[in-house]
Specification:
With 304 residues, this protein is an alpha/beta fold. The chain has twelve helices and eight strands.
């Protein structure tokens, strides 16, 4: 199955929610009047695209171009084109550009978002691009997170810096960066705790981690990537807001599109926050995370 087919399969629930609504709202040769435009706008909001994007699409459809009506294919094409226009400026793969090496990638997100497996998939992708990678188990709050990351590191064949549960996360990050520099590693990916219920503690821990990393590398972390669970829908927007303020997030990865009817949320996030979207995940397999492509995502979302 091609990546686009997998993406369409992963977005099937979202497509069913949005595409079926749009199919029922096409007018054929009848005028696209205000009442029908209102219905289309409501359908877009219900599909988690957000009020701003829905209003933008409504405005476009209200143009004279569609005064004589619009069929299903035309309606889906117009929506996909506008969605792609929102997403295109933020579709930016995670690139290794730091000099001197390593590029330090801090990965943040709430527990259960798929953070640890996303780290493994990113590491795998970097190794396939002939970069050397090291992982650091900076979520020292949970023994399970450390154990899971160790298993992934062994599977991928990359070194892991880990401590005991309860160890100082910032100290571990410092040790990992020292080790990565000594080994001439290209990319160091650091896991972090994700307990939002203690926001102040998380803020302090992440701030301390950044400070100690910058003692060794003033530009570190070069990327702070927030992993989002697509199934949370609009709640993910609140997570972006918190982590943007707490962790200085520089980009997003969305996971679990394979089980979600909430893929439209990514469009709302792009419109509201303008943060780079690095990749999307459509399954648990190591090859199920790919760089984000705006046009592909938009087409899959509306069922084209």
């Amino acid at each position: 199955m091609s990546w686009l087919d997998r993406l369409r399969q992963g977005l099937a629930k979202s497509t069913g929610r949005l595409g079926d609504s749009l199919a029922g709202l096409a007018t054929g040769n009848a005028p696209l009047d205000d009442a029908r435009l209102d219905e289309i706008e409501e359908a877009l909001i219900a599909a988690d695209l957000g009020p701003a994007v829905a209003a933008r699409i409504r405005e476009r459809l209200a143009g004279a171009r569609f005064a004589r009506g619009i069929d299903e294919a035309g309606l889906k094409a117009a929506v996909a084109e506008e969605v792609a226009a929102v997403l295109a400026p933020v579709a930016k793969p995670l690139a290794v550009t730091a000099f001197p090496r390593p590029q330090v990638v801090l990965v943040v997100g709430v527990n259960g978002s798929g953070k640890t497996t996303t780290i493994a998939k990113l590491a795998r992708r970097f190794t396939e691009q002939d970069y050397t990678v090291m992982l650091a188990a900076g979520d020292t709050f949970r023994a399970a997170a450390i154990a899971q990351l160790r298993i992934w590191a062994e599977r991928i064949g990359v070194p892991l810096i880990a401590g005991e549960q309860g160890a100082d996360a910032a100290g571990l990050a410092y040790t990992a960066l020292e080790a990565a520099r000594a080994a001439g590693t290209d990319v160091l990916i650091i896991d972090t705790a994700g307990r939002l219920q203690n926001k102040a503690g998380l803020m302090d821990e992440l701030a301390k981690m950044r400070r100690v990393l910058q003692k060794l590398s003033p530009a570190a972390p070069h990327d702070t990537v927030l992993v989002l669970d697509a199934t949370t829908g609009q709640n993910a927007l609140g997570q972006i807001e918190v982590f943007r303020d707490v962790a200085k997030v520089t980009g997003l990865v969305m996971t679990k599109l394979d089980g979600s009817a909430r893929g439209g949320m990514l469009v709302a996030a792009a419109e509201k926050f303008r943060l780079p979207i690095h990749a999307v995940g459509v399954g648990e397999g190591m090859d199920d995370l790919r760089s984000f492509d705006a046009a592909e995502f938009a087409a899959a979302l509306v069922g084209r």
